[in-house]
């Protein structure tokens, strides 16, 4: 094992605080945490900076990691700074679609850890000016904290992009032709 550079086996497990085993905790808390992860997807797709920022604790950290890279591609610290994420999406992709799947979490008082599966689509124009979809398979690793107001927020979110694929798109807002 190389101490400075993780090998493929070490990178196989996503980084961040992952829920181990079955979900545990009060069902109301687990439902609130599911709403939090779904709100993240909705805020990203709507480019809603205010909602996006509100989902994070004041000292939260968001990290974006790709399975083929040793170091994080992006790290954002502090709730106010999180507005950079929907802005970056708006600048690069005319439309995105995040479909949230499995969500597991373990609640311990006012803190929790969780893991969420997501398939994300990013509509864009490719190098030839044709509409394309950057599809990413993501496993989010989360640490959550309940604020003094009783609302759950992200204390830490690690976006683990496990793999991606680019493919053609028809019948989109960017399309000039329909395939049907």
TrEMBL record:
CDD domains: NTF2_like
Gene3D superfamilies: 3.10.450.50
InterPro entries: NTF2-like_dom_sf, SnoaL-like
Region span, Disordered: 1-25
Segments forming domain SnoaL-like: 28-158
Biased composition (Low complexity): 14-25
Stored Pfam families: SnoaL_4 (PF13577)
Residues annotated as transmembrane: none
Protein name: SnoaL-like domain-containing protein
């Amino acid at each position: 094992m190389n101490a400075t550079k993780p090998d493929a086996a070490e990178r196989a497990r996503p980084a961040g605080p992952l829920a181990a085993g079955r979900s545990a905790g009060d069902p109301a808390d687990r439902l609130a945490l599911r709403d939090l992860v779904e709100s993240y997807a909705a805020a990203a797709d709507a480019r809603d900076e205010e909602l996006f920022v509100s989902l994070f604790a004041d000292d939260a950290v968001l990290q974006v990691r790709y399975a083929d890279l040793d170091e994080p591609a992006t790290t954002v610290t502090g709730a106010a700074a999180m507005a950079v994420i929907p802005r970056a999406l708006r600048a690069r992709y005319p439309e995105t679609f995040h479909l949230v799947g499995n969500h597991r979490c373990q609640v311990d008082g006012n803190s929790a850890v969780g893991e969420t599966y997501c398939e994300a689509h990013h509509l864009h124009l490719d190098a030839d000016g044709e509409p394309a979809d950057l599809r990413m398979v993501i496993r989010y690793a989360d640490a959550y904290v309940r604020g003094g107001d009783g609302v759950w927020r992200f204390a830490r979110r690690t976006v683990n992009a496990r793999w991606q694929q680019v493919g053609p798109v028809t019948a989109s807002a960017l399309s000039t032709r329909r395939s049907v």
